[in-house]
Design goal:
By secondary structure, this protein is α/β, with parallel strands linked by helices. It folds into two domains: 1-67, 2,3-Dihydroxybiphenyl 1,2-Dioxygenase, domain 1; 70-129, 2,3-Dihydroxybiphenyl 1,2-Dioxygenase, domain 1 (Roll), CATH 3.10.180. The chain has helices spanning 14-24, 61-66, 84-93; strands at 6-11, 28-35, 38-44, 52-57, 77-81, 97-105, 108-114, 120-125. The strands form two sheets. A four-stranded mixed β-sheet has the order 1-4-3-2. A four-stranded mixed β-sheet has the order 5-8-7-6, covered by helices on one side. The two termini are 31 Å apart. Residues 3-126 form the VOC domain. It holds the Pfam family Glyoxalase. This is Glyoxalase.
């Protein structure tokens, strides 16, 4: 293996998911095309062009039941930041819900937030050496 390219995320609606991830979390749309009967949507952070979220529309009842629960209550992904306090304040001002406020110790700082479907993400500031 060479690298990680995409993380697959089940969504209820492409447009509402795109709006959340772009306006609240700062992602950008890399791909938004129709491939036959399906829509193909990839989002990425501008600072990390090689890794993206591949949004997949939940189509079956089983898939719809997993939206927001793909990891069975565990965090879906971890984001790193150089300034947890500033990012926390910015995300809160945009309406992002934090389920764990920032906590700091000798290992750095950590906070947990959820997306529009309840998927949990971790935001970490590593200590400076």
């Amino acid at each position: 293996m060479k690298s990680l390219g995409r993380l697959v995320l089940l969504v209820q609606d492409y447009d509402e998911a795109i709006a959340f991830y772009t306006t609240k979390l700062g992602f950008e749309v890399v791909v938004d095309i129709h491939t036959g009967e399906r829509r193909c949507v990839h989002l990425r952070l501008p600072t990390q062009p090689d890794v993206a979220l591949w949004l997949v529309l939940a189509e079956t009842a089983a898939q719809r039941a997993q939206v927001g629960k793909q990891t069975a209550g565990q965090p879906y992904a971890v984001f790193y930041t150089d300034d947890l306090a500033a990012d926390y304040d910015q995300l809160v001002s945009k309406g992002v819900e934090f389920v764990r406020a920032p906590v700091y110790d000798i290992t750095g700082g950590v906070a947990h937030f959820v997306d529009l479907y309840g998927n949990e993400f971790v935001l970490i500031e590593l200590p400076t050496l």
